[in-house]
Write a structure and sequence with these properties.
The chain is mostly helical and 393 residues long. Helix 4 packs parallel to helix 6. The longest helix is centred in the C-terminal third of the chain and has 28 residues.
Length: 393
C-alpha cells in the first residue's frame, strides 16, 4: 500500500520533506480516486501526523484542508486545537465548523485564535457576539473590518464599551455606514474621556478642568451629531443619553441655544414621559404656564428655567432657528439675549447658570469669528469691504 510506504518513509525524512509529503497525502485524499481501505489508511496516517514534532508538517496539513468540505473532520478539529500558527488556516476558512464550535474556540482561545475566527467569510451573528463579548482588541478590530460579518447592534455596543478608548477601533467603527447614532455618540464620549485622562495624566491641566473641557466638547459634538442624524434615530439617541447620564440640563440648554428644537423636544419628552406631540404644543404654544409644568415634570433644575424661558421666547420672536450655521453651533444672538435677560436675576443658586451662559457666549462669539474669517479668506478680495473707504483729501 502507498500509505504503508509513506509511513516508513516518514521515520527518516527531514521536516521539510515530511511537510511536502503531508501536503501530497492530503491532496491525494481530497482529489484522488482512492479505495475505501486506502482512504481509511490515509486518514489514519494524517491523524498520526497531528503528533509530528515539526509545526511545518502540521501547517502543511492545515493549508491543504483549510477550505475543503471533504476534509476529514477529526483531522481538521485536531488542527484547530494546535498552536495558532498551525490552527489559523482552518479557523479562518474551514466550512466544517458550526457556530457552537467557533463560539467555544473564541471563549477558550488566545488572541490569535480569536482573530483568525474574526476573519472568517460570512461570519454569523452568534460568533460575532462572542468575539465582541470576550475577544481581544485585535480580534474586535478584525471583526469590525470584516465586511462579510453579520454584527448585531448590541455587539457593536459591547465593543465600544470594552475597546472604545482605542483609536484604531474607534476609526474602524466610525467608518461603518450602518453605525447607529447612539453608538456614534458613545464613541464620542469615549474619546472625550480618553483625552481628559491623557491631559490630566500629563499634568497639562488639572483633572477637574480637563474633565469639564472634555465634557463640553462631548456635548458640542453630541448636538452636532443629533443635527446630522436621521429623525428616526433621535429618540434612540436621546434614550441612550439618558441611560448614560449625559442628558443633563446643560446639554438640553445647548441644544435649544443651537436652535435644535427637535433634540430639545425629544429630550423633554423622554425626561417627562409626555407624548412628543404634547411637548411640541407646549413648547411652541403661547404662554409659559404649560411649559413650566412640562419643565418641572422633566425634572430639570429650577435654577436653569429662566434661561430656557428666554431662549424659547427668542426662538418665537426672532426666528433664530434659521440663522446661518444650521443647528450644530450656538446661536450668538440667542445666547447673548438669554445672558442679558438672566443677568438681572438674583445671584446665588443661578450663578452656575450665569457661568455656563458666559462660556456659551464666548464659544458662540469665537465660532462666529472663525466662520467669518474662513469666508473672508476664501472669497475674492472685491467681495468683502471691511468698512467705509477712506478717501485722501
Amino acid at each position: 500500500m502507498i500509505v504503508r510506504e509513506f509511513l516508513q518513509w516518514l521515520r527518516t525524512a527531514p521536516p521539510g520533506e515530511r511537510a511536502d509529503g503531508a501536503s501530497a497525502l492530503a491532496r491525494a485524499y481530497l482529489f484522488s480516486p482512492l479505495s475505501i481501505d486506502d482512504r481509511a489508511a490515509a486518514e489514519g496516517a494524517m491523524l498520526m501526523l497531528l503528533d509530528d514534532p515539526s509545526p511545518l508538517v502540521r501547517r502543511a496539513l492545515a493549508e491543504a484542508f483549510a477550505s475543503s468540505q471533504a476534509a476529514p473532520a477529526a483531522v481538521v478539529h485536531g488542527l484547530a486545537a494546535d498552536q495558532p500558527d498551525v490552527a489559523t488556516p482552518v479557523l479562518e476558512r474551514s466550512p466544517l465548523f458550526v457556530d457552537a464550535d467557533l463560539v467555544d474556540l473564541v471563549a477558550t482561545g488566545s488572541s490569535p485564535i480569536q482573530t483568525a475566527i474574526a476573519r472568517r467569510p460570512m461570519l454569523q451573528r452568534a460568533v460575532a457576539a462572542a468575539i465582541a463579548e470576550v475577544g481581544s482588541a485585535e480580534a474586535c478590530l478584525v471583526l469590525v473590518e470584516n465586511a462579510d460579518a453579520d454584527i448585531a447592534a448590541f455587539s457593536i455596543g459591547r465593543m465600544v464599551a470594552r475597546h472604545g478608548h482605542l483609536a484604531a477601533i474607534r476609526e474602524a467603527l466610525l467608518s461603518r455606514d450602518d453605525l447607529a447614532a447612539p453608538t456614534r455618540q458613545a464613541l464620542v464620549a469615549k474619546l472625550s474621556q480618553t483625552l481628559a485622562d491623557f491631559v490630566a495624566s500629563r499634568a497639562w491641566l488639572g483633572r477637574d478642568r480637563a474633565a469639564r473641557i472634555a465634557n463640553e466638547a462631548c456635548e458640542k459634538a453630541t448636538v452636532a451629531l443629533a443635527a446630522e442624524s436621521a429623525y428616526v434615530e433621535m429618540r434612540p439617541l436621546v434614550r441612550h443619553l439618558r441611560e448614560t447620564g449625559q442628558l443633563t440640563a446643560g446639554l438640553v440648554l445647548r441644544a435649544l441655544l443651537c436652535g435644535n428644537s427637535v433634540l430639545f423636544e425629544e429630550a423633554l419628552a423622554e425626561l417627562s414621559g409626555v407624548p412628543l406631540e404634547r411637548v411640541f404644543g407646549l413648547v411652541h404654544g403661547k404662554g409659559n404656564a404649560g411649559f413650566r409644568a412640562l419643565y418641572d415634570k422633566a425634572g430639570l433644575p429650577a435654577s436653569t428655567f429662566p434661561a430656557f424661558r428666554e431662549a424659547i421666547e427668542a426662538m418665537h420672536e426672532d426666528g433664530l432657528l434659521g440663522d446661518a450655521g444650521g443647528t450644530t453651533r450656538l446661536k450668538r444672538r440667542m445666547v447673548e439675549r438669554v445672558l442679558t435677560r438672566c443677568e438681572h436675576a438674583a445671584l446665588g443658586e443661578v450663578e452656575p447658570l450665569m457661568t455656563l451662559l458666559r462660556r456659551f457666549a464666548t464659544e458662540a462669539a469665537r465660532e462666529e469669528a472663525r466662520m467669518f474669517c474662513d469666508q473672508l479668506a476664501a472669497a475674492p478680495a472685491y467681495d468683502f469691504v471691511p468698512g467705509p473707504r477712506l478717501v485722501a483729501a
